[in-house]
Design a protein that fits this description.
5 helices, single chain, alpha+beta, binds zinc ion, 60s Ribosomal Protein L30, Chain: A, 4-stranded mixed beta sheet
Length: about 190
């Protein structure tokens, strides 16, 4: 019997191209980012790459597969979905498997728009859905590749989970059953 804390780390990454639809809002970390010439991201849901990366990290840490397996992009239920609600649902799945978030850290790679004015609000919204502190960082691709040409936005995330007290996994030794990874992704 180990005294090691029952902790699990997970990582996630998500990428969305910019949409050609000028009416589509840009939603990142649950925050609608407006401004002159700001384009939205293309996707089945609201295309919130930040919420999706964190959701994938939660599922990964809990050993529950990936976002596409739980919330397939072929399901009309998720068309235009608010990804903060998807994240809440994912946190619920992890909790049902005996894991709750400790914290999350993420990095958004966006050539434009400038995200610095929005990261505090994004962290607040994501933290509300996760039920734990979320740190949001923004960086640029310095002109390199598709992200550098501002063809889309990417986000990477790591999440730490701890075992729910009294959930029958005191030593964290039992991994919950994973689901098969989905072909589709919630885009
Ligand atoms: Zn996505």
């Amino acid at each position: 019997m180990s005294d090691a804390p029952a902790l699990r780390v997970g990582q996630g990454i998500d990428v969305h191209p910019f949409s050609d639809d000028p009416e589509r809002p840009l939603v990142l970390g649950g925050v609608v980012i407006g401004g002159e010439g700001v384009r939205g991201l293309d996707g089945h849901s609201d295309a919130d790459a930040v919420a999706h990366a964190i959701g994938d990290a939660v599922l990964g840490a809990a050993g529950l597969g990936d976002l596409g397996g739980h919330l397939p992009d072929t399901d009309p239920q998720w068309a235009g979905a608010d990804s903060i609600e998807l994240l809440r649902r994912v946190v619920g799945l992890a909790a049902a498997a005996g894991w709750v978030p400790v914290n999350a850290d993420c990095t958004v790679v966006a050539e434009r728009p400038r995200l610095a004015p929005h990261v505090a609000r994004m962290a607040e919204r994501l933290g509300g859905a996760l039920g734990a502190p979320v740190n949001v960082k923004a960086t640029r691709a310095e002109g390199l590749g598709a992200l550098g040409r501002a063809e889309g936005i990417a986000c990477t995330a790591v999440v730490l989970l701890t075992a729910v007290p009294g959930a029958g996994r005191p030593d964290g030794s039992e991994q919950s059953g994973g689901t098969a990874p989905g072909d589709g992704e919630v885009r």
